[in-house]
Write a structure and sequence with these properties.
five-stranded antiparallel sheet; about 10% helix
């Protein structure tokens, strides 16, 4: 019997013209992308997950300690990377209330980037656990340029099956 595990990432960027539009869930664009191969879990994140499974680490990826980062660098993903690759334009944001969530073999992380935040080209995205700043993954995908006044949300779903 041959078994094979599957790993899938879905990145959703929802764009709003203002905070008022966000509050009304009136977006002007919603991009949902099944992340293509070549984007991956990172070695440090995999090791952290295994340590969490065996009880070797107590610092969880939860609402208080998880962040999504957005940067403007599109350097190819390398499993040995330990941070976003952007030198200047990078911002880490805490989870929105009720995130992360787990359901049906999937974990979902979501953060909001306000009108004065992350106003540059969105080229890379990652989830990290704060404190030790351990990156779980890194995704390279051009999502456009956020401008002052706009509010964007980044939602990253990781499914293992």
């Amino acid at each position: 019997m041959k078994e094979k595990g599957k790993f899938k990432e879905t990145l959703t960027i929802t764009k709003y013209m203002s905070q008022e539009d966000r509050d009304k869930d009136k977006h002007y664009e919603k991009i949902v992308e099944i992340v293509p191969p070549g984007n991956s879990l990172l070695n440090a994140g995999i090791t952290k997950m295994w340590n969490l499974i065996i009880g070797g680490d107590a610092a969880h990826y939860n609402n208080a300690t998880s962040e999504i980062g957005i940067g403007d660098d599109n350097t190819a993903v390398d499993p040995t990377q330990t941070d976003l690759q952007a030198a200047v334009n990078v911002l880490w944001k805490a989870m929105e209330a009720t995130y992360p969530q787990v359901a049906a073999q999937k974990v979902t992380f979501q953060s909001e980037f306000g009108s004065a935040e992350a106003n540059y080209a969105w080229e890379e995205c990652a989830v990290r656990q704060t404190g030790a700043n351990v990156l779980m993954n890194r995704v390279i995908s051009s999502k456009g340029t956020k401008t002052v006044g706009e509010v964007w949300t980044a939602k990253l779903e990781i499914t293992l099956s």
